[in-house]
Design goal:
The structure is a homodimer.
Chain A lengths: L2 H16 L7 E3 L6 E5 L2 E11 L11 H18 L3 E11 L5 H18 L2 E9 L4 E10 L13 E4 L5 H11 L6 H11 L8 H7 E6 L4 H12 L2 E5 L7 H10 L3 H7 L6 E5 L11 E7 L3 E6 L2 E4 L9
Parallel strand pairs in A: 4-5, 9-12
Antiparallel strand pairs in A: 1-2, 2-3, 3-6, 4-6, 7-10, 7-11, 8-10, 9-11, 12-13
Helix pairs in contact in A: 2-3, 4-5, 5-8
C-alpha cells in the first residue's frame, strides 16, 4: 500500500501504533496539537511544523521575511491550542548551496520578529543542504494545564476566535498572479502569508476551555478532530458562522460560495474550542458557532433544518 | 553571496548572530552539540539532526530499518556528548505520497529498536509530503552537568572513545556497489549504516570530562571545534591514534592512507573529550590520543617532529 492510499490521517494513525511509549513522565503522546511531558512538576509542551518549498510555500509567492514569521506562528498556534506559552524554539534548516545568503537572512529576520511578538526565543539549530528550502521548527512551551482535543462535553458551546476561510482565499488570489490587487484582496493575501497565532487569548483558553484545537486543516476537519477525540456530536449554527467582509467581497467578485471557504479553508490559525455555559461570558470577543451534544458526527443547523457536514479537511498528503 | 561560499560553519556563524536570546533560563544557546535550558532546576538538552534522501542517505544503499536506527543514534550522540541522557524524541517526517507504507513501517521499526536500546521514547510527530524522504528528529535529554565544547584546559589529555575512519571506509565500500563483500568490509559498512552512540560511557563523560564533542565531521574537524571554543592548542600523538584492524585491511586492499581516514573520516559518532590527568584512570577503555597546551591550533606529533594539521572537516554544505 502506498502512503497516498492511507492519506495523512491514516498514516498518522498507523505510525503512532508503531511507537510504544514507556515513560510515566509523558502526560500526552501522539494525537494532539502538542505532546506533553512533566519535568520537575512543570508541564512542557513539544510540537513541530515544517515549511517545505514547493509543498507548504512557493518561493515566488511569499517574501522570505513572511516565511520566517509563518514558520514560527504555525508552531506557536499549536502550543497555544494546548493552553501553553511558547518558550524555546530549535530551528532545523536545509538549503540549496546555490541559494543567496540574503534570502536566509530575511527568513531569520522574520523569525526574530515573530519571536519578539510571541515573547519566545529560538535557542539552537541545525543546518544542512538540500535541493529545496526546508524550515523545520521544533517548539517547546510551558503550561500549568494541558487543554486537550478530547475534553468537549455535552452542553458545551463551540467557539471560534476569529474568521476562517481568509487564508485559502488569499492563497487562491496569490495563485492568480495578478499584476495588481484590490485592498481587500491584499488583506486576504496577508492572512495567508502572515498568519498570527492567537496568543492574545491563550490565557483565557487555558483557564476556561474544555477542549481546543487550532484551525490548520479547516473548520469542519479540525472540529471533527475534537468531536472524534471527545466522542461527542457537534452542531454548527449556520447563521452564527462568521464571514468576514473581505471574504464576502472575494466570493462576490469571483462567484464563490463563502460557506465552502469558512468550513473547509485551512491555515487560518484561529482557535476552535469548547466551553461550558458558565464560562461563556469570558469570551465575548469570540464567535459562538455551535453546541456539543451527545452522539457523534458534525452537523449544520439552519433554522429547523439539520444536515450532516461531510468531512473534507485539508490533508497534507 | 551564495550559501556555498559561506560554507556550513560560516553559515552557522552568520545565522546565530541574527537571533538574539533574551531568556535567563537558557544556559547554552547556539554553538554546541545541544542547546540547554533550566526548567524548574532540571537542565534539559535540545538537539536535532536530519536525514534527507540523496544528501544524508541513498535509499538503495541503506535498509529502512537501519535508517530509523541511524536518525535516532546521531541525535543521541549529540545529547551524550553534552553529558546527557536522551529522553523524549519528536519526529518530523516528510515522504513522497508514492512511497510504499511498508518502507516507513520499517523505518519506524528501526527507530523503536534504537529507542529501546538507548532507553528513550519518541512521543510525538508531524507528517507532511515532499519529493524526497526527510526524517528530522528533535531530541531532548536531561543532565545534571552540561559538558561544553569550551572546557578544555592546558594539561588536559585528549581522549577518544573508539576507532574513527570506519564509517567513511564503509560508505566508500557501499558506493563501489560490489556484488559481494569480505567480512571486514561488511563490518565497515555496518559502522556506516548502523552507528552506535556511546551511551555506555555517558555517565563517566558527564562526571569527569572537561570538554566533549561527538565525532560527526571527522576527528581533526571536531577536535578543532573543541580547541577553538576552549581557546587552547591541541597536540595529537601519531603513534597513539588508533587504527582498527578492519580499516588497516581496507587501506591495504585499496591502497589508501589510514591516517586520512582516522583524521578526516566523519560520522563515526565516537566521543572525543578532554580530561584532567587525575581522572585519566576512569577511562582505561578509551584511547589517550593527545594533550592540550596553551596556544591555538591543532598539531600532529611524531617522535620529535611536530606539524600543523590542516583543518579539513566534513562540511554538510
Amino acid at each position: 500500500m502506498k502512503i497516498k492510499d492511507l492519506g495523512e490521517f491514516g498514516l498518522i494513525k498507523e505510525l503512532t501504533q508503531l511507537l510504544e511509549i514507556n515513560d510515566s513522565s509523558v502526560v500526552v503522546g501522539f494525537g494532539d496539537d502538542c505532546s506533553c511531558v512533566n519535568i520537575s512538576d512543570q508541564l512542557v509542551l513539544f510540537t513541530s511544523d515544517v515549511q517545505i518549498e514547493g509543498r507548504h510555500f512557493v518561493k515566488a509567492l511569499i517574501s522570505p521575511q513572511d516565511l520566517g514569521w509563518r514558520v514560527v506562528s504555525v508552531n506557536v498556534s499549536d502550543v497555544v491550542a494546548c493552553g501553553g506559552k511558547p518558550r524555546w524554539g530549535f530551528i532545523s534548516l536545509a538549503v540549496p548551496p546555490e541559494l543567496e545568503f540574503e534570502y536566509i537572512r530575511q527568513v531569520y529576520k522574520g523569525m526574530e520578529e515573530a519571536c519578539q511578538y510571541y515573547k519566545m526565543n529560538i535557542i539552537g539549530g541545525n543546518t544542512s543542504s538540500s535541493e529545496k528550502i526546508i524550515l523545520d521548527l521544533f517548539l517547546t512551551g510551558i503550561t500549568d494545564r494541558f487543554v486537550p482535543r478530547s475534553g468537549a462535553e455535552e452542553g458545551d458551546y463551540i467557539l471560534l476566535s476569529g474568521y476562517t476561510g481568509l487564508s485559502r482565499a488569499g492563497m487562491e488570489l496569490l495563485q492568480m498572479k495578478k499584476g495588481s490587487y484590490e485592498d481587500f484582496e491584499n488583506r486576504l493575501i496577508k492572512a495567508h502569508t502572515k498568519p498570527v497565532a492567537r496568543i492574545d487569548i491563550a490565557e483565557k483558553v487555558k483557564k476556561f476551555a474544555s477542549s481546543c484545537i487550532d484551525v490548520s486543516d479547516g473548520l469542519a476537519g479540525d472540529l471533527s478532530h475534537i468531536l472524534d477525540s471527545s466522542k461527542v456530536k457537534g452542531i454548527l449554527f449556520k447563521e452564527n458562522l462568521p464571514i468576514s467582509s473581505h471574504l464576502k467581497a472575494f466570493c462576490k467578485k469571483y462567484k464563490k460560495d463563502p460557506l465552502e471557504y469558512v468550513l473547509y479553508g485551512g491555515e487560518d490559525y484561529q482557535l476552535l474550542f469548547t466551553v461550558n455555559e458558565e464560562h461563556l461570558l469570558q469570551f465575548d470577543d469570540c464567535f459562538v458557532i455551535g453546541k456539543i451534544e451527545k452522539g457523534s458526527g458534525l452537523f449544520l443547523k439552519e433554522e429547523n433544518n439539520i444536515k450532516k457536514i461531510i468531512r473534507k479537511g485539508f490533508e497534507h498528503l
